Amino acid sequence: MSKRYFWKNNSVASFVLCGLSLIVVLVMVFTKTLFFRLDLTEEGRYSLTEATKRQVSEMKEPLTVRLYLDGDLDANMLRLKRATEDVVRELNMYASASLSVELINPNSATSDEERYAEYARLEERGLRGMSVTVRERGGKMMEQVIFPWAEVCALHDTMAIALMQPSDKKSGEEAVNAAVEDLEYLFVDAIRILNRREVRKIAFIEGHGELAEEYTYDASDALSRYFQVDRGVLGLDASVLEDYSAIIVAKPEEQYSESDKFIIDQYIMHGGRVLWLLDGVKMSGDMLSEGGATPLIELDVNLQDQLFRYGVRLTPTVVEDMQCAYMPINVSRPGEEPRFEPIPWFYMPLLQGSPYHPITKTLQAVKADFASGIEIVGDTVGVKKEVLLITSNASHVNVAPTEISVMNAVNVEPSEYFNTRYVPVAVALEGRFESIYKHRMAPQGIDVDKIIDRSESTRMVVVADGDIIRNDVEQTREGLMLVPLGYDRVTRQMHGNRDFIVNAMLYLTDDEGVMQLRNRRIDLRLLNRAVVDLQRSIWIWVNSLLPIVLLAFFGVVFFWQRKMRNRKL
Question: Less packed terminus of the chain by CB within 10 Å, N or C?
């Protein structure tokens, strides 16, 4: 080989190496000051929304995320862990203060006693463990306790986040996918609470036989995490509601006066939001449970014309549903010792939520109690109407006036009796509503400068069951005991009532678009497990032999080229 050839080829190589080095240095310099990432996924799963970026850009202090998913995890939990870390890392890119992750393994203790003590400490903080079945490589199944929780820690406060919601209707992969879809919303919601500058106010309306404070205590407690919760009567002051972001009408039993209706109507016209929780009929649950029958009559609280103008109508009905909760019933004969057995209580339907609305997406079934139906009516142009809660495909509708009986559904063929499908029970309305007082005078006693006959763009939610927000209160030796909202004492399960109320109020008051994060969808693309198991050995051999074959091939090519180059010299 000549010196000329040697230096020529080596100078070219040196030039290429210098150029590559320069490019690497420039990339390192620019990545220190510039950040960008291309998200080529169809659903944009790795991109934050503008609403999220605005929220994290207003962070006032550094936050730490304690993630209790660490250690020996199965594939699903490992995916959830990595997705959570990715979301926090992405949020940190746009945050005005640092957002870091601290990984904690609840199963790191060396002894069972220490591990169970750690479980107890987490349970005391409200972080409930979850038992999952893990399949090892050999096909062996084992139980594992995990804590799919995170805590967002500020200087003086901590917010716990449940990364997964228990569901009997979803596989492990589907449940994790639903959890991954909600991650951005969960963390933005926590950051919003920890960094809020002012507390918005909401109010329960009183004065018409609405549920007493003790029966809405659990819902009020859950809402106080986000709002200042007040209660009060309306009076004659037309501006009494102007400081409130939203109001709740919870199961009134007495008629609203025209002045009360006017105040609520004009509140809506000014952009106010309302959660209506109303009964369509009047009956006695005690008579039904004790005597087996009760009359059913329409309940008129003087709101039907107002709701009709907004676009909905409560039907004077009670819905029975085969998909229902259970009720303990005394099955013993007269004179015998009481013996209670759980039976399906068809008047307590378990309502299913729409998977396409931020209020009800991923929501557990909502337990109702003597629910009525809702009809969408009128030609309300410019008002978007979406059904939120429905009964199952095996329902029966009792129309008032009539008598309903426990034996109604017992002595008939179920396929003939439960012949109604998917009765709407809750509806969300959004748009510009027309006032019921258009072309009318203000009620006597109310001083108002001008009646607004068409609202600003606003929202309301109408539910044809006031008991959805009602928690039970029991008398014990120690005093009154609160039964959590949505708790089923027979199955000892929590239904989605509390989450529905909270989500509904957050949706109504959401001016930043944060609730729309709950509508984020990530398509689940699962591998066929049977095909994977069948092809496992093939791919093991491919992964083992392919690098060796490629290395041998490039070695042969290299030596051949070198031999041909030497021949030319």
Answer: C
153 Cβ contact list (under 8 Å, min separation 6): 63, 64, 65, 66
CA separation for the pair 350, 494 (Å, rounded): 12
3-state secondary structure of 112: helix
Q: Which of 59-73, 431-445, 522-536, 546-560 has the lowest mean pLDDT?
A: 522-536
The Cα–Cα gap between 352 and 388 comes to 8
Position 268 pLDDT exceeds 90:
yes
Q: Fill in the amino acid letter for 263.
A: I
Q: What angle do CA 73, 77, 79 make, to 5 degrees?
A: 115
Return the closest-CA partner of residue 508 out of 263, 244, 264.
244
Residue 404 confidence (pLDDT):
87
* Identity of the amino acid at 462: V
SS3 137: coil
- Which among 282, 286, 306, 510 is positioned nearest to 400, based on CA atoms? 282
Tokens of 167: 């569901």
Report which of 1, 475, 528 is spatially closest to residue 214, judged by C-alpha positions.
Answer: 475
- The tokens describing 272, both together, are 């106010």
Task: Give mean pLDDT, residues 27-39.
Answer: 51
- Identify the sign of the CA torsion 306, 307, 309, 315: negative
441 and 378 Cβ atoms separated by less than 8 Å: no
Contacts of 236 (CB under 8 A, 6+ apart): 259, 445, 446
Beta bridge partners of 324: 349
Over its C-alpha atoms, the chain yields an Rg (Å, rounded) of 31
Q: What is the dihedral of CA 503, 506, 507, 512, to 10 degrees?
A: -140
Six-digit token pair at 74?
């199965």
What is the structure's pLDDT at 563? 74
| Residue 149, CA distances (Å) to 155, 187, 237, 526 in order | 20, 12, 47, 24
Are 283 and 249 in contact by the 8 Å Cβ rule? The answer is no
* The pairing of beta strand 227-232 with beta strand 324-330: unpaired
Answer yes or no: pTM beyond 0.70. Answer: yes
Q: Which DSSP symbol is given to 165?
A: -
HEC string for 205-269: ECCCCCCCHHHCHHHHHHHCCCEEEEEECCCCCCCCCCCCCEEEEECCCCCCCHHHHHHHHHHHH
User: Kindly report the CA angle at 224 between 223 and 229, in degrees rounded to 5?
Assistant: 90
Please name the residue that has the structure tokens 């600003």: 456
**Contact at 8 Å (CB) between 224 and 195?**
no
Whether 323 and 347 have beta carbons less than 8 Å apart is answered as no
73-91 burial, b at 16+ Cβ within 10 Å, e below that, comes to bbebbebbbebbeebbebb
Q: What pLDDT is stored for residue 7 in this prediction?
A: 41
pLDDT digits (tens, 9 = 90+) for 434-478: 999 998 888 988 888 889 999 999 999 999 999 999 999 987 777
